[in-house]
Amino acid sequence: MKKKLESELVSIAHRILKLKGREDVLRMHEEARLLYEKLSVLKFAHENFDDDIPTIGNNSSFFDMLDTAFNNKISDNIEVEDKIYINLDDVVDDDISEPVMNKIKDMVEFMPEETKQQEEVDKIIESVVPKEETHKGELEDLTADFRDLPVFEPISKVQQQNGQEKKTLNDRIKSGGMSIGLNDKIAFIKHLFEGNATDYDRVISQLNTIQSFEDADRFIETIVKPDYNNWDGKEEFEERFKAIVEAKFS
Questions:
Q1: Across the chain, where does the E strand assignment appear?
Q2: Are 100 and 9 in contact (CB under 8 A)?
Q3: Across the strands, what pairs with 78?
Q4: Percent of the chain with pLDDT over 90
Q5: What's the average model confidence in pLDDT over 144-168?
Q6: Which domain of life is it from (predicted)?
């Protein structure tokens, strides 16, 4: 078991030394994780199974074992799926052992705890991945569910003293001082103002400042209608709109 761990650690160290540049950062991160896992297994084995696992020297640290391992002969290297497995049986000098040892020691010394490491990864992801932005849809998309609203049944709440009929719930929805039902409002915006709710609100606001129906009608004919093709073919909606405006002054 120990021989296998040592071989894997040496292989990881060699792979780390080959990584250079920004494009290898993710690969280096993965190799560092593997290195940390192998070191943890070897540390656990030494702390709990000293009698069953042979050691390299007495009371030697892992880095002492690696020193001995790296000073052994590196031969019969076999590369399978970009992983190198090394034979450590024969002993020869190798110039690469010194930088490999230093790199492993530095990585182990500064290796963060698992929780802290995950938090740093999450922060990086949050800074790179843009937040999803919400866009306001077109008026027809927003009002799609209101196209076929049923007519509400009359509610008996207050009987007008002048004998007027009871108002429906739609009639009680006020818009800028005029009594405009929700269905009417949606129809006016769609057919008379080409789906532009802002223009509709601006016209209603202006009509609420006019003191007579004659002035209001003149405003509609000379200012509003020319901007919307004189409401050609929209006579039914125009008549309904003017009737509501006229009711405001009655």
A1: 75-80, 83-87, 174-175, 178-179
A2: no
A3: 85
A4: 24
A5: 53
A6: Bacteria
Q: What is the predicted pLDDT for the residue at 6?
A: 76
The rounded distance, in Å, linking the Cα atoms of 149 and 18 is 69
| 122, pLDDT greater than 60 | yes
CA-derived radius of gyration, the chain: 41
Helix (H, G, I), strand (E, B) or coil at 75: strand
Residue 127's CB is within 10 A of a number of other CB atoms, namely 8
Q: What is the C-alpha separation between 69 and 97, in angstroms, rounded?
A: 9
State the burial class of residue 104 (Cβ atoms within 10 Å of its Cβ: 0-12, 13-18, 19+): buried
Give the Cα separation of 23 and 26 in Å (integer).
7
What confidence score (pLDDT) does residue 139 get? Answer: 62
What pLDDT, on a 0 to 100 scale, did the predictor assign at position 99?
60
Is 143 in a helix, a strand, or coil?
coil
Grouping H, G, I as helix, E, B as strand and the rest as coil, residue 98 is helix
Backbone conformation region of residue 166, classed left if phi is above 0, alpha if psi is from -120 to 50, else beta: beta
| Structure-token pair, residue 120 | 């740093």
- C-alpha 65/C-alpha 148 separation (Å) is 80
Each domain of the chain, given as residue ranges in start order, spans 2-128, 139-249
Residues 30-45 have a mean pLDDT of: 83
pLDDT of residue 79: 44
Say which residues have a Cβ less than 8 Å from residue 68's Cβ, sequence separation at least 6: 56, 57, 60
The helix or strand, by DSSP H or E, that contains position 49, with its residue range, turns out to be none
Q: What is the pTM for the complete model shown? A: 0.32
Looking only at Cα atoms, what is the longest distance across the chain? 114
Tens-digit pLDDT profile for residues 192-211: 999 999 999 999 999 999 99
